[in-house]
Amino acid sequence: MSSYLSSDQDSEFYSDFENTPSKGRARSSSRASDFAADDNPDDGPGSYTSFDAYFLHASRPSRTSSNVFSQLVQPLSPDEYAASLPRALYPLPFSDASTRLLEQSHRPHLPRYLLELTEGFNLLFYGLGSKRRVLNELARACAARARAHVLVLNAFQPSFSTRDVLAALAHLPGEPQDADGVAHFLSSVRRQRLVLVVHNIDAPALRTAPKARALLAALAALDGVQVAASVDHVVGMLARRWLWHDLTTLAPYDAELAAADPASLRAMTETAAVHVLAAVTQRARKLFVLMGQRQLEALADAGNVEPTNPVDSGEVAIAYDVLFNLARDNFIATNDTALRALLGEFRDHRLVVTIGTGAMGTGEMLWIPLRKERLKKLLDGLQQQQDPP
Amino acid sequence: MSLAHDDVDATQPVVYIPCGDETSTEDDAENDTDEILAEEYSPFRERDLPGGYVTRFDLYRAAWKKCFDRMEVRSIFRSLGARVETRVQHIVSALHAPLVDEIVRSVHRAYDDILPGLPRVELPVIAISGSSTSKGFLADVASRLETNHAEDAEDDDPPPGSHITHLYPSDCPNIMSTMKALVTGFVNHPPNGKDVQRKPVTSLASYDIELLKVWYGVLRDSAEGPEPPPQLVVFLHDFEQFDESVVQDMFYICSSYVPQLPLIVVVALSSLFPSFLHTTYPQSILSLLRVDTFTVPSGPTLLERVIAETFFDLRFEPDVMVGPAALDYLTDFFCRHASSVEGALLILQLTHFKHFDEPLTVFVHDELLGTSSAELATEKLSDPKGIAFLTSLVSWSFGHQELAPNQVGWPVNDVAGLLASIAKARADFRYRLRRFKLAFGVLLRVRKVILNLGYRTAEVDKTPLEMMSASLRGGLAREGKYLVMMTKKLSVEKTQILLQDLQSFLDELPGHMDETQEVRQGLAASAELLEGAEGAISTGVADEFGDWLAGYFQEHIINLEDLRLWEIWYTGPTPFPSDMLNPAPRASVVSALLQPQSFLPASHNDATPERLPIWKLPDASILFRRYLEAGRMINVYDWYDSFSQAVESQRSHLSRGGGEGSGADEEEWKMHVQARFMRALHTLDLIGLIKHTGRKADHVMRTVFDIPE
């Protein structure tokens, strides 16, 4: 295809571009100096924006070493993690004293927040550090001084769900069952107020549960209900018509990360499993529970020594034919094809790993690559879902 | 469900804290709450009266209520399924009223004028676009439809109230539940008010439209007199969120039952353009419908009207005049971010809320300082505890020259005199503000007349909202001069038109206003001259009137900040706390990671340098600094390695022993470092700085590419 621009025009076009003062040159020089932009004092930080940085990084393959963390470092068990964390030889920088001081410095603002809540504003708190303590204090102040009924929602818990909110609503006078009930309760007594304090309104449990979100939205839309919530994710939602306050505390996210696995690089591994399980059929979920329970039993038999990679997991894995028999006895799958279809989805999402496949499926072993505590919690959650209280 | 004494339980998903004291729900508790709160809150404690904020908080409430009531009136509708108290904007609803009328009329006539010759009767659909800009609008339409409309004077016999059902996207995941919601929405209201027990075995299914037909038949037959039978109106809220195929099926079913069932569908579109229906639905469905489109007024015009009729209206005197800074922010927010009435109200409320932080605003109404008489107020002000407040009051009231030693002596000599001077300042401010508003009104009117006369050059490059803001800054001199110049060039007839128009503008204002006298006199003088010069081609009248106008503008369109104690009644150039509505959470997190020391209270921060050495940083910051130095992808092991080196250096700096421990200790130390690394890593993951990737084993991706300063 012939170019619409003649070569003359082409060069003119580019030379024009080159001639634009400062910008073009600064950019090309920063490109030439690659990552060494810091070393070049002429450039200065002003000529180099984060957009430039992004495109510079994206323009080349990222070269990293071939070290693999999980192979080179022995993973910590939750007990080891809990035991070794406080074992510091010296006071850490910005630890307790500083964070307490920062939290203290937020305290004088509490009356202001209370006033804003009583005036009907909803509040959102952002900034680095756990905002739990300050918000809990706000919650207690609301109850004690602003004469409001307060519900503190720990949305950062992975198992947080709509059901919990509904169960908590029943504690209000009049035991309302839904948003309409709350509206009725609020209108029954004059100047009655309900304040929802939501820790991490951007938590995965709320992000991925439209029902819980809808319930919160319905509650927040009522007259006499105010919300004070914290946001930690940097690309969190941007709610207009809320008042935002910077509440940087630098405090460690201990409660928020209590559910995180110290051996996993992800703070929230469970969610992936929860997503997959939410999408599969009831039958497949039953199969997963069955497998999980069998694996937990096997782990207990093996003296609770957990394998860290698929190769070592032979002891706790379940043989395919054993699983098939189990599934048939529990009316989950009556033939091989049906079982494979059920397993397919789990395999695709690496929720079930196959090891040692032999010919025609003989000697095939299946294993759920989740740690014991995590698997147990997941199964508990699933069982609760299956037989609601 | 428990409540630990020191902290709220983090292991429970939800903790309920009961209301402080449940016994006092009576009226005596009405205002205590706010006073308890307000007593602790005092933004300018150093120069505030004791308990000053309590008084000011009441003043704030009164001021905001006055302003709010101007903009809206409350009315209670039985609408939207539940008993919701819906606020309807007064000014806004006045703006909407013609459109509401038109929609209601179009609903009533939906089945009256059917085009002849069509193969089948079309289902009337009324598409209201831009309905999301104001919540009250749809409620307004619904309530008008539900009640009898005696106010429709032009209709000789007002049709009876329509039956209404509201459908929301969440109710309608499939056609069965949609039809069920539609049918039961009507059928649950029995025709004669009595609840009918239906036998499930013998009656039709609740999603069957035949059931609605039977119900409607009973309704029609039970109607007495010659009244036309009521219509059935279905509201589809948040129409864009409905499933297309479900709506298509619903339209198809409904259209096959018209006109036996006089169904009318009202579609609430949130976009401003009604083309959504036409781009989303196929011709086969659209051909069944007769679509009428309406657009809710919105955008700058709406805001303009609200502001002009609240703060720039001579008939209304707000306690606090909003200043140009807040006005500019409001305009910007409204035009750029959220073009909704609620958002605008929020900004105005915040402006009021913030304004009353200033201790001096206690004088916004009177000089009583929350007491019942002037004597008590004098006493309160003479109290030694309020000396700082008194000092600031004096220094704000009078300029340097007045306070400097001079022959005349001090402008006031006692507290009573000071209070009297405040009263004077208030009266003066109000007086000047009224003149200012009038002069601004005259300026706009002159501009309008000149534009109407066909002089396009009178178009100023400012929007009306910008004009308002500029006028408050005293920055309309150029526009004023230009208009004066145009006025001077007008011919005799055109001058006459201008004078007549200004006269009618004055006549529209309430009669008792003294401020108009000056303008009336100016007009009268010119009119007299004009009468004398009838027939002449050009006279000095336009010239003279222009001169008068120039003087008038210059005298009255002033910068309100030149007035004494303007801070009490005018928010002026105080910037709006935009952080509270449009924050930068990401910037805050990144800077807290890079420079945690700058967030510490000032006393602990003075001696620390700009950039701390890496061993002085908390763990997450160490990790983040290394993160910024890395490429697009980060190898977790290498990251861990560099983190342990930083921690090693931290150990050698901070540890008292400083030296190496035994082998067992070393093992423990390694685990400790690893635990800290994991915690810091999870922290960065929690706040969203890490993106996991399956592309390379144990690698993560950066999400932030900011440059450390």
What does this structure look like?
Chain B: Keywords: DNA replication, DNA-binding, Nucleus. Chain B: Residues 78-362 form the Origin recognition complex subunit 3 N-terminal domain. Chain B: This is Origin recognition complex subunit 3 N-terminus-domain-containing protein. Chain B: InterPro entries: ORC3 (IPR020795), ORC3_N (IPR045667), ORC_WH_C (IPR040855). The complex is a heterodimer of chains A (389) and B (709). Chain A is an alpha/beta fold. Chain A has 2 domains: 2-25 and 93-257, 3-Layer(aba) Sandwich (Rossmann fold); 264-386, Orthogonal Bundle (Arc Repressor Mutant, subunit A). Helix content of chain A is 46%, strand content 9%. In chain A, strands 2-3-4-1-5 form a 5-stranded parallel sheet, sandwiched between helices. In chain A, strands 6-8-7 form a 3-stranded antiparallel sheet. The longest helix of chain A is centred in the C-terminal third of the chain and has 20 residues, at 282-301. The model of chain A is unreliable at 1-45 (pLDDT under 50). By secondary structure, chain B is α/β, with parallel strands linked by helices. Chain B folds into 4 domains: 1-40, no CATH class; 95-301, 3-Layer(aba) Sandwich (Rossmann fold); 427-569, no CATH class; 585-702, Arc Repressor Mutant, subunit A (Orthogonal Bundle). In chain B, the strands form 3 sheets. Chain B has a 5-stranded parallel sheet with strand order 5-6-7-4-8, with helices on both faces. A 3-stranded antiparallel sheet of chain B has the order 9-11-10. Chain B has a two-stranded antiparallel sheet with strand order 2-3. Chains A and B meet through helix 3, helix 4, helix 5, helix 6 and helix 7 of A and strand 1, helix 1, strand 3, helix 12 and helix 23 of B.
What is the gist of this entry?
The complex is a heterodimer of chains A (389) and B (709). Chain A has 389 residues and is of the alpha/beta class.
